[in-house]
């Protein structure tokens, strides 16, 4: 393979952005472990006592959603999200960097817009006291706020990559 082709874009951004993305991913992993633990305990309880954990569906749905949001920024930081390289792998490194930079700007813009929308949604959910529909009636404004934070961090990570690509520093 020629050196001017783009198989490797260098190390992911570090510093505060890297630390925040890794922290969100860690918390996302913990959240998914909680969902798995609640599911497992609930199933075992159904086998032995015919009674699951009260509100297990509510807990698992919120924990799973928060978990998935937690990995978005880290995936973007590591450039591990779904990418289509079929078109750009044969391009010269600078051209492929410009193409990737453009799409990182698009991804960053979309995720920052989603963060703003979810932030407003979290405020509205908090103001009107909205709760889950189910046995526990849990408030879930905080889960929406975590999603907004995760989207914002994803947008920042994407824009950092975009700047690196567009400046040719990769």
From TrEMBL:
Keywords: Cell inner membrane, Cell membrane, Membrane, Transmembrane, Transmembrane helix, Transport
Recorded superkingdom: Bacteria
Transmembrane regions: 20-45, 57-75, 95-115, 136-163
A Pfam family matched in the record: DctQ
Family annotation (InterPro entries): DctQ
Compartment list: Cell inner membrane; Cell membrane
Topological category with respect to the lipid bilayer: Multi-pass membrane protein
Keyword set includes Transit peptide: no
Keyword Zinc-finger found: no
Tripartite ATP-independent periplasmic transporters DctQ component domain ranges (all copies): 36-166
Stated role: Part of the tripartite ATP-independent periplasmic (TRAP) transport system.
Subunit: The complex comprises the extracytoplasmic solute receptor protein and the two transmembrane proteins.
Family indicated by similarity: Belongs to the TRAP transporter small permease family.
Record protein name field: TRAP transporter small permease protein
């Amino acid at each position: 393979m020629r050196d001017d082709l783009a198989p490797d874009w260098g190390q992911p951004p570090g510093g505060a952005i890297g630390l925040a993305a890794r922290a969100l991913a860690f918390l996302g992993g913990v959240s998914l472990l909680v969902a798995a633990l609640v599911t497992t305990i609930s199933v075992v309880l159904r086998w032995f006592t015919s009674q699951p954990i009260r509100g297990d569906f509510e807990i698992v749905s919120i924990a799973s959603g928060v978990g998935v949001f937690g990995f978005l920024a880290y995936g973007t930081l590591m450039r591990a999200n779904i990418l289509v390289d079929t078109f750009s792998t044969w391009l010269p490194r600078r051209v492929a960097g410009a193409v990737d930079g453009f799409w990182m700007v698009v991804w960053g813009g979309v995720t920052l817009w989603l963060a703003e929308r979810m932030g407003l949604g979290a405020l509205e959910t908090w103001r009107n006291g909205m709760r889950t529909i189910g046995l526990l009636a849990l408030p879930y404004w905080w889960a929406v706020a975590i999603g907004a934070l995760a989207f914002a961090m994803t947008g920042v990570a994407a824009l950092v990559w975009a700047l690196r690509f567009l400046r040719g520093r990769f």
